[in-house]
Amino acid sequence: MVSAALPFPDAILALMRRPLLALLIVLAAIGVFAGGLAWLLDTPRPPAGAARGERLYLVLCSTCHGADGRGSWRAALFLIRPGNLADAAIIGRRSDEYLFDIIKHGGAPIGRPGMPAFGATLRDDDIKELVRYVRGLAGSP
Ligand code: HEC
Questions:
Q1: Which atom of ligand 1 is least distant from the CA of 112?
Q2: DSSP letter at 94?
Q3: First to last CA, the chain
Q4: pTM, entire model
Q5: Which of 34, 44, 68, 70 is the most exposed, having the fewest neighbouring CB atoms within 10 Å of its CB?
Q6: Whose CA is nearest to atom 21 of ligand 1?
Q7: Is the CB of 71 under 6 A from ligand 1?
């Protein structure tokens, strides 16, 4: 008898005879899954009194780029490669216009489609704040 050797199918069969218990287990599993997803997608809370650029960055950008700009492991989990915004050698070579444009229009126009466009969400002043903040990330060791 196969089922005698494998306790698992028996357990599942027993569960199917108890629909309410099975329902509760399924609901609990969905709860754990949704909670895990929320935890995964949550962004760091900006410190009290943070400048506008920092707040915007932490809320909108850190999911992919990480709070320190080095790229978040959450992004890596979804096979997104956001590069390293804290690398002064890379960011130092970029002009303010380049940084402004890639944030406003996304990477797609210049063949780097991983970076989404924020022109519809952010005013130009906010994008300028973000450019300044990204420069600051590259400046920190
Ligand atoms: C969905 C994930 C995601 C989010 C959110 C995101 N980025 Fe990006 N970003 C990327 C990826 C991926 C790249 C690299 C694109 C490439 O090289 O192909 C990138 C590239 C960049 C670059 C260019 C870096 C370089 O070396 O050229 C800048 C600057 C940048 N992002 C800033 C931001 C800012 C500021 C925000 C928030 C307003 C932001 N990103 C939000 C994924 C993201």
A1: 18
A2: S
A3: 65
A4: 0.76
A5: 34
A6: 115
A7: no
